[in-house]
Design goal:
Layout: H1 2-11, H2 14-86, H3 92-99, H4 150-206
Helix pairs in contact: 2-4
């Protein structure tokens, strides 16, 4: 009875009521501020995550482009090696080119292209015989394999040189851009981790 009466009397004092009101308002302001900070942190986390994902996509496209260009360059190099092998000394191609005029339109039509690159066939004509095992064919009915003469092969090799140099320039540029994007990705990943930590802190503070 008496203690309850004293408590009611204290609560009804103007000064105490004002103090309680101020404390409630302060708590309310802190709650609003905390909610605002949490919302801003979550928004920043979303933005940073989206930026990070965009950077990753850009980097992956650059790397894919890099692989594609590298593959094209390798094919050009292989084409060039094949062409160079045709005009090397000691190959069947080289022998026929020097021995049989316009061989591309005669023997060249019935010889496996791979054999023309071999160096261990020891080619020679017996008694001036230029037919294949004495067999005569109507070669006009067979399409030429398009071996080309030495000059056209050299020109093609030179053209491939230009293509390879151009691809190397593109590859260098793409590789540099990919490295820059990788660095940006790493930095953005750190930003995402930092903001995620901030969000956790705000959540803990709000609780």
């Amino acid at each position: 009875g008496r203690e309850e009466s004293q408590l009611k009397e204290r609560l009804l004092k103007p000064g105490l009521q004002t103090k309680i009101k101020d404390q409630l308002e302060q708590l309310n302001r802190e709650h609003v501020e905390s909610s605002k900070n949490l919302s801003e942190a979550q928004s920043e986390l979303l933005n940073e995550t989206n930026t990070f994902n965009q950077l990753k996509d850009e980097r992956n496209k650059k790397l894919e482009n890099f692989r594609s260009l590298s593959g094209r360059k390798q094919k050009k190099i292989e084409q060039q090696v094949l062409l160079k092998s045709r005009i090397e000394d000691g190959t069947l191609f080289n022998y026929l080119r020097d021995t049989v005029p316009n061989f591309e339109d005669t023997l060249g039509k019935v010889i496996n292209p791979e054999l023309l690159l071999r160096k261990n066939l020891k080619p020679e004509f017996n008694h001036g015989e230029s037919s294949l095992y004495g067999l005569k064919l109507d070669l006009s009915q067979i399409e030429s394999k398009g071996f080309g003469n030495v000059q056209s092969i050299i020109e093609e090799i030179q053209e491939l040189d230009k293509d390879i140099a151009d691809l190397e320039t593109q590859i260098t540029q793409v590789e540099l851009e990919a490295k820059i994007l990788s660095s940006k990705c790493d930095a953005k990943e750190h930003d995402v981790a930092r903001v995620r930590h901030e969000v956790k802190g705000e959540l803990a503070h709000k609780e």
